[in-house]
Every structure is written in structure tokens, then in C-alpha cells.
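In the previous chapter we treated chains in isolation. Here, by contrast, the input contains two separate entities that must be folded as one system, with a combined length of 977 residues.
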Amino acid sequence: MALPQKSRWQFGAGDMNKILSEVAKHKGESLWEDAWRRLRRNRSAFYSLVFLVLFGVTSFLAPILPIASPMALTLQEEPQPPSWPWDSTQLETSPGAQATGTFGAMFNNGWRHRSVLTFTFEGGTLDSVSSELSAMVEEVTGRTTAINRIAAAGNKPAQLFFAVPNEFDDTPRTNWVDTGTTGEVIFLRADNKAWLILNLPVDETLYRSWSTVVSGKDGSVNLVPNEDAGAGIRYKFRLTERFAGSVVGITLNGRELAADGKIEDLAMVGPPEPVVEPLKWDDAYEDPNAPMAPLQLASLSDAPITSPIANLFAKFGEEEIELLQGASLEEDTRVVVESNGSDRILFVRKSLTAAEQQGTFHIDLERKVNAGLEALALTGGATATLVEVESESGYWELNGIDGFMLIARSKMFGLWQTGNWMGTDSKGRDIFARIVWGSRTSLLVALIATLCSLVIGVTYGAFSGYMGGRIDNAMMRFVDILYSLPFIFVVIFLITIMNEYKVELQDNFGVDRETVFYLVIGAIYWLTMARVVRGQVLSLKNSEFIEAAKVLGASTQRILFVHLVPNVLSIVIVYLTLTIPAVMLFEAFLSFLGLGIEPPKVSWGTLAVDGTEAINPLKIFWWLVFYPAIAMGSTLLALNILGDGLRDALDPKLRGKD
Amino acid sequence: MWFAVTLFCVVTISFFMMRSVRGGPFDGERALDPAIERNIKARYHLDWPLTKQYFQYIGPLNLDEHRAEIFGGDGKSPFGGVLTLDFGPSFKYKDFTVDQIISQSLPISALLGMVAMMWALALGVSAGIASALKRGSKLDLAMRLAATGGIALPNFVIAGFLIIIFVFMIPLLPVAGWGSVRHMLLPGFALGAPYAAYIARLTRTGMLEVLSQDHIRTAHAKGLAPKTVIMRHALKGGLLPVVSYLGPAIAGVLTGSLVIEKIFKIPGLGTHFINSALNRDYTLAMGVTILFTILIYSMNTIVDLAYTMLDPRIDLEEM
């Protein structure tokens, strides 16, 4: 085949440059620049964008900002109204104030846990009973309390709520490990009080400190340290209570222990000696016929124990009696040993999961307060009963970045923090801080859902649209079926089932419940995206540039992700901005129903729950409803406006249509 | 046709998920006596092989030869299964079947939903028409602002505001409960408000479009009263987008009722669903899920039918 001698127009390097310079001369605005110009001209959309950027930055930088703590539980009677923002508070140096402040709650501090005691009473006046009970509780616990008093209304009896902060040391941060060894618990004769001395194969990792309740009245307590224990182990004994009467002296290893104080810490450094002098209790009160006490095993560890598996044996002389085997120990499990003398109960405990290690000593509080209540004679013949002891914790773990930001904050602002300018909730947590920290949840959900919808939705839609034919049909039918499911119900169902497995997920995969929750939400928001992308790809796939790419031998993958996806990006972005508010709303919805974020963690849904629960006819805590509503409403509104604005900007044909 | 497929998917997936969950509804705080556990399992057929359980759950097969001794009666009635809308006994409320619970609570939820839709339609349509007629006026602006706000605020927030205002600040209405018309106003409004906002927007756009068309000009030229023009000629065309929105709106109202029923303590289907989900009462949860699927589907179908009746240009076959 003969080629023409010289083609009329031969394409050379010079020509290419000419074309390129020509193109550069006539370069119009790109789609994005054009869209940006149009978006800026749309005032409301632009302000929404600014608002949302500010919102994102604030919520990401929440730990750095000198706002009050979202987790510190303050002892107060009711939600406090907003104060002026310039009423900033310098955290005082008193332990209580410091503890309840931001740092106290975010770093290791015991005041982040507390027990709430609920009393009812008959007879007497509210004032007298509450002051007497308060004095009793403070004496018994050795801690300041806060009272919330609710007068009798109708046939509802008057109620008194006491909040007792649980000290951090109440939480033995014990890392329980199943060593396969058997610990020995020696139960001694006692009257009515619980007391345990533990004799365990102790090593530093297994058992760092032990708080034992000593309120027995037996003559001696044998403490036999493990001989295998290595050197340098620090035992920490804590006599949290004395028995009625006075302990004249306790000696341990020849060292005199102060016995008159309420709390005594003893650090014993060095290898323990094999034989220890018995602790001597000089008790003014001895009644050998006193009934055997129900043994409160809960005081062995801490509540709330969900279900550690325990085997319990009672040992009488040489005889071992099985009391409980493989039983689940609930808080109120009591084992009665009908014997006296030096009877023993052997006890094996499996390792506890992370979730089960939390808790405070508040179970023992019930016993103490009840004992105090028995001894207390209220004026006017009033009788009070302890109805409920409830443990509350406002604390959740912060991740590394947040911890770092907290440190940065302490460097910048010290202990200074703003006042509660949006008021506080019923537990004394700052509403503004809760809103800001709650927005992080919303942001995270939005982020994950966005990613899911980008990754799954765009790929799925583009592939389906590009392949066309039977594959497209099948893939889209699948989407149709999923689409017609009533998703909220299915998701709730799914989350309920996930709740069953949260411990396994946590232990085996390191996935906590919240991650699953986020993923479940993300997994359902790709459907619309897939449909939209498919439609766009269908209209694009026969255009010339795709033909050209095919002719040049580009792979399907390349055509999809290099040629098609960038061309549908504008519509993808529009749908993303419209998906985000829906996702945030959905998260709030689920959290509101108690299926999403669990307290004490905060999200806008849980804030709304707090708000609606605080509504009562006696007093209107409007700030609990108003401010979260404003935050949620303005964010969602801004997102909606921005979404509409983006749609107009990126696709002017659609302007003004709903 | 797709309805059947979807329903089948919902039933099958949720059934197997439900049965595969470790720890049944009877795992209480205390371990049960093995004998008792066996009895309970036998009663609810949890001891059968999974496929048999499944078929029994699905269809009207008489797989249960002990029915008479367990439930009394003549024992002839085959166990209903989902196909006959018999969802079996509730695991938690021992004396009730799921059907009984549903039949008690469904009317309440339906009524609530109806009140909400009535609020949404009444407010939305009238606001939409008003702002379309007074386009550009302050009224229009106010309506549009309110509509945007209504879309952005979730219904539980609106409910909180409503309670504060109409129960405590101006004590007009009861705070919670169910029974009289006064109980229905607030929850209905809170549930319907977001949809009212959206309907108002749709009506406004639709009306504006219709009002600029020739046949409206003709009607005006004929000398018809403005009221007649709007009511008879414009409204029918202007409401078309609203009608097509009714399907999603009804679905939304049904789901939204989960929250509203919780806030206003209404013993409706939503409350039962949430409780059953939290209590691991799987039969009840499944029953309600299936019921909601059916409801939402049939509502959508009805809306489609209504749409073709209003707009003869649309052919149902093409949809």
C-alpha cells in the first residue's frame, strides 16, 4: 500500500506545542473554579460552608479549647442555669474542685466516679432528716456528699439523693490474669460484718494493690504471704473501716500500724517474711453466739461485675464443700457459711475482661450506710430506708491524640476554663462542652458514612453502569431489594444482635461496639450513591473519550477510575453533602433510642435524651433542650443549605428544583 | 413481585440472625435449671433443627403436634406462621402472642401516624399555597424560613420544645399518655412537623409552576373567582409532587413514631419494637419489623395508585 508522498498536514512536535500554547491562551475556567465562583456568589451557602468549617475545627480541637469537662460529675442538686462566659473559673486547689474540673475528670481522678444513694423516709421533716442523714453518710464514708431533695408530692414519698464521690483508689486497677493458681481467702468468724483478707499468689502484674475491707471482730487475722513472691513487691493494705469499737494496735512484721485513723496505707517494701504476726484486734465487743454473717463476695472485687465465673469452695478442716461452681457472681451473691472458727473458702477467679474491671467500691457503701442507718436515731421518730445504691461514672477513655491535645491545653491555658455559659446538666457537666464533644461523634459518623458511601457506592455504581447488560441488571436489582428494606428496623435489629457479641468483638478483634455501630450506619448509606453514579456512568460510557480510552487499550479498571469517576465527581460531592445530615440525624436518632452511643459518652442523641428527661413540671431546665437543639438544628441546616448550594454550583441545570 | 422477594429476604435474614445469636431471651441473671430450660425450649420449639423452625415460622405447616397440650384448644389449628400473619408467641410477655401485642398497639400507632399526616398535610399544603400566592412577600419568606427550620430539626427536638411550651409554660395539653384527642395533638404535630415543612416546600414549587401555565390564565380570563381557580384548577396540578412524596413521608412517619412514642410514652408499636429489641424478645421484634415492611410497602403502592389517578399522563406499568 503506497502512502501519499507527503500528507497534507503532518503532526510534529512543533505543532503540538503550538496547540498547547493556543489551548493555554484560551484556557477557560475549569469546572471546579467555575463552581467555586458560583458557590461564593451564593451567600447563604458560602456562610454555611464557613460555619461548617468552623464547626469541624472546633469539634476536632475540643480537647485543646479551655472549655469545661464533658465528663466531670459535679455534686450538685440540679442542672445549673447558664452563666456568663466571662465568668471563667480558675480551678481551685481544693481536691474536690480540682477533681471535678476538666483535668480531674480527664486524667486519673477518682471523682469521676460516684455512688448515688437514694433514701426514702417517713415522719420527720425534709430538712431535719436530710441534714441528719447527710451527717451520717459523710461520717460513714468520710467524704463530702451532695444532696438532692425531692419533697413528697401526691402519693409519692419524699426522696433524698446523696451523691458520694468514689475515690480513685477505690478502683483497684487490678489486672486479673488467670494464672491457673488457686487463691486462698480466709474467712474468719465474725458477727455481722464483712471482711476479707486475701492471700493470693501475688506478683506485680497480677496484683498491684488490694483494698480490703476490714471490719471483722475476730481475735486474729492470719496473713500468710506467698513465699514465692519475689523481692520488691509492694503490698498495699487499706483498712477502710474499723469495726465498732476501737482497734488499739495492729502490728504487721513488727511494725506498728496506726489504727485510730479511718484509712491507713501501709507500704511494705522488700520480700515479705514467711510468717507474719497475726493482726491483733482488741475488741470491746465480743459475742460468740452472734449469727454468722452473710459473706459479701462483692466486696472481694468491685461492682459492677457483669459475670465473672467463680468457683467457690468452703473448707472445713480437711473437708471441702463446693458452694458455687462456674456460677455467675452477681453483685448480690451471698454465700453463707454455717460454721465457725478458721473456716476457709477457696476461690478461683477467671481473668476479667476490660469491661468487667471497671467499677468502684460502692457495693460496700451499701453495707456501711445501712449499718450507719441502723445506729442512727432520727429526730421525731422518723425512719429512713436506703432504697438504692447506684454507681455512676462519667468517664471514658481518651485516645492518644486527645490526650496529647489535653496536655497542650494545660500548657497553654493552665487550669483556666470558661464558665458554664450554656448551663450544666443534672450531673453538673457543662452543656457547651457536651455539645462540642458530642459533635465529634456526629463528625465521626459523618466521616465514616462518607467514606463508605464513597468507596462502596461509587465503585459499585460505576462498575454496574459501565458493565451494563445482565450484570448491571442483577446488581441494580440487589440495590433495589436493599433499598426497599425498612432500614431503620433492620439496623436496630442488627445493633441489638451486635450487642450480644460486644465482649467477643472487643476481646478478639479489638473492635468496640461503637466502631460496629459506625460501620453499620456507614454500610447502609451507599445505596443512593450507587444509583446516582450508575446513572451518570450510563450516560457517559458511550461518549468519545471512553471510546478513545478503549481504543488505546486501557483496562476496565483504568477506564472506571481514571476516566469515568472523575467525571461524576461533582454529582458525588453533591450527594455526599446531602447524605451527611441524614447520617448525623440517624446517629442522633439511634442514640436517642439507646441503641447508639452509650452514656457516659456523649453524642447529640444522648444530649437530646438528657434534655427530654429533664423536662418536668416543677422547674423548666430550658437550656438542656434549647442549646443542643440549636447546635443540631444549625449544623443540619447549614449542611442542607450547603448541599443545595453545591448542587446549584456544580450543576446549574438543576438550579431551583427540589 | 419485588415485594415478595423483599419480604422473603427480611424474614429469612432476620430469622437466621435471630436464631444464631448466642444467648437466648431466657438467659436471665440466673442459670436455669436444665429441666426447666428444656421445657421452655420445647414450648417455643427452640429444640428443633433450624430448618424445621424456619419452615414453621414461615408457613402454615402443621409441624407442631403438641399444640393442643401447650396452648389448649382443640389443637387442630395449624401453627400460622408468617404467611398467615401469625408471628408466634412473644418470648418476654409470656401470656401474649405477638399478634395480640400488635393488635393492641397497631391502632394506636396508626392513629398517631394519621394525626401526624393530617398535621403535615394541613399545615404544609396551606402554608405552601399561601406562600405561592404571596410570592416574595414577608409571609412567603417567613414560611420558607419555618420550612427550612422544620426540615433541619429532628422531631425529638421539636417534641422537647413543644412540651416545654404547651405543657409547662402554657398548660394546655397533657404531657404524655394516650386516650383522648388532647393526647394526640402534640405527638402528632411533633411527628408531622418535618414533613409539613417539606410538603410546604413542594406545594410552593408545584403551585408556582402551575400558576404560570396557560390554563390558569384561561381560567382567570373566563372570569372565574380566584378561589375557584386555585381550588379547582391549580391545586390539582400543584399537589402532584406532594402526592409522590407521600410514600416516603408515610414511611418516615412510621419510623419517626419510634422516638415520638418514647417521648410521649404512648403504648404503640414503636415502643414495643424498641423494648423488644432491648429485651431480646426476638419474635416480637421480627413481627414488628415484618409488619412495618408490609405497611411501608403497601403505603407506597397506594400512593402510586393515587398518583396515576391524579395524573393520567403517568402509566403505572412504566413505574
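The longest strand of chain A covers residues 383-393. The radius of gyration of chain A is 34 Å. Compare these points with the single-chain example from earlier in the chapter.
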